[in-house]
Design brief:
1 helix; about 50 residues
């Protein structure tokens, strides 16, 4: 049990250190995905209107 607990503690420390960087990266990816989707939807609606 003690080995598993120490591994969990190490993982928790690594997570807390890289958490901010990961959150920023995920946030950027979400924003990029949202922009791409909204752009695609806008283009799709424009092509539908032109028909």
């Amino acid at each position: 049990m003690s080995i598993i607990e120490s591994i969990e503690n190490i993982v928790a420390i690594i997570f807390s250190i890289s958490n901010l960087q990961t959150t920023i990266t995920v946030y950027k990816i979400i924003i990029l995905t949202y922009k791409v989707i909204s752009l695609g939807v806008t283009c799709h609606l424009k092509t539908l209107k032109h028909r």
